[in-house]
Specification:
By secondary structure, this protein is an alpha+beta fold. It has one domain (1-68). The chain has 3 helices and 2 strands. The chain has helices at 5-8, 22-28, 36-46, and strands spanning 15-17, 31-33. It has a two-stranded parallel ribbon with strand order 1-2. Strand 1 (15-17), helix 2 (22-28) and strand 2 form a beta-alpha-beta unit.
Amino acid sequence: MVWAINGMEYLSKIIVVGAEDAEVARRIGWETAGSVKEAIEMAKTSLHDSEPSVTVFHWPPIFLPRVE
């Protein structure tokens, strides 16, 4: 998790879909959603004039993606 802290400073919200343990995500400060559609709707409520961006990980991240 330490590797992600710098990048997380630039994000307004992190929403995890399909978390194995939602309590762990909440302790880290992330929100959880039951589906991608629900996550996008959650993100839209926090954005006033733009669309949310989506980044998908298919495996445990061992790199830092560039999200714009």
